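Trying the structure run again after the queue cleared.
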Amino acid sequence: MNVAFLFPGQGSQSVGMGRDLFDNFPIAKQVFEEASDALSINMARLCFEGPESELTRTENTQPAVLTTSVAALRVFEAESGIRPKVAAGHSLGEYSALVAAGAIELKDAVRLVRDRGRFMQEAAPEGEGTMAAVIGMEAEAVEEIAASVSAETKRVVVPANYNSPDQIVISGHTDAVKAAVACAREKGAKRAIFLNVSAPFHSPLMKPAAERLAKKLAEATFREVTIPVVANVDANSYRSPEKARELLERQVYSPVLWTQSMAKLKEFEIELAFEIGPGKVLTGLLMKIDREIQCFPVGDVGDVKKAVSMRV
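Done. Tokens:
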């Protein structure tokens, strides 16, 4: 059976994530210790005890989610022996996918995403940018609304995440996003919800962050991947270190093409996917995108036992 590994991004974090893996598997404990050494912070304490206000700071959230995802990955690999045919990750999760594919070491990945989080936060002054999820409206309609509002206001608002066929996240200047949300509601969106984020991620306002991150990416050691990774930026798979650096830089200010990335799994004849890391967001999204591919979360000991018992 052809299997894909999927890795969650920011928003999947919760205080306590990864604790039972840490307590029950030495290999998971090793991952947390490696990340802690790389960043000179107690990653276990941050993930297990928070407080939530500290965990949800972008520069902390990103390495915390990555560390928890890689801990779950290492446990699942050891317990199941399963190797995927392809990997993908949602935004931040693409770094976890690259660790899974052998393209980058954990210690380098956590340093990169901590810098990524800090650069993204600093790219837009607090309150200047935001994001909102538009639900129950086709992508083309959301794109038209964003383009119209941008043209009228001379402010930035763009599609940022194509999460599923009827869930598009928009991002940009706060006033422009508010105007686009009002327009979407008027034009029949089922819901339009402002997200609890501190910056307009995956919008052109993040280009200064991408420029700063590019320097860090150039310094980091990347290797040829052992399995293909599907990129957020163009929903194509890639293998080379040069391509990885280019795509990760562009990813900061480009939309996450998640719906298109999941469609790409068909080319690999994927029948089963595992969402490896905290939360179950990607499992829910894949059900909306393609019901022919079964997806199971692997985020705690119970999930691991259930997944291993499937004997893929």
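The chain has a mean pLDDT of 96. Worth checking whether this holds up in the mutant runs.
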